[in-house]
Amino acid sequence: MTHGMRTDVHISPEGRRDWRDDAGRYALLPLRLFLGVTFLYAGLDKLTDSAFMKDAGAGSVGDMMRAVRDSSAVPALVDLALKNPPGFGYAIALGELAVGIGTLLGLLARLAALGGALISLSLWLTVSWASDPYYYGNDLAYLMAWLPLVLAGAPLLSLDAVLRSRRRRRTGGYR
To answer: What is residue 23's predicted lDDT score, i.e. its pLDDT?
Structure first.
């Protein structure tokens, strides 16, 4: 049994393309916009929160990491973050910014989505691991939301699509 991507096009009785074809082509765009805006906002929120980037104190990344250390799935990852909590906070914030911008622009979209998935995975295994029931922790849902974008990238309305189109024109239609 072979599996492949559908290549047929629905044609209405009037000879027009069916809306389902266009809907299928644009299906990942709302997810891409949501994740891009969310990660961009999360990165900016961390960078502009004076309490977050501190080693200790209310709302600090250091206190948050110490609070979840014993309940995380990977305490060694938390210990690594605790070696330099502000540095870890900046790394997460800048990573979220890069992922958000790359996702919104569709630039290196698969790489940006992989970065988002890895950030979500690390947060799930540390910060939200102890959520009970598990679906109260949103990091697992974010991880799953990134996976379609890791697989598909940003084929439409993206800088990746523009660059791919230019490459095709330059090489005479070949990849």
So the answer is: 80
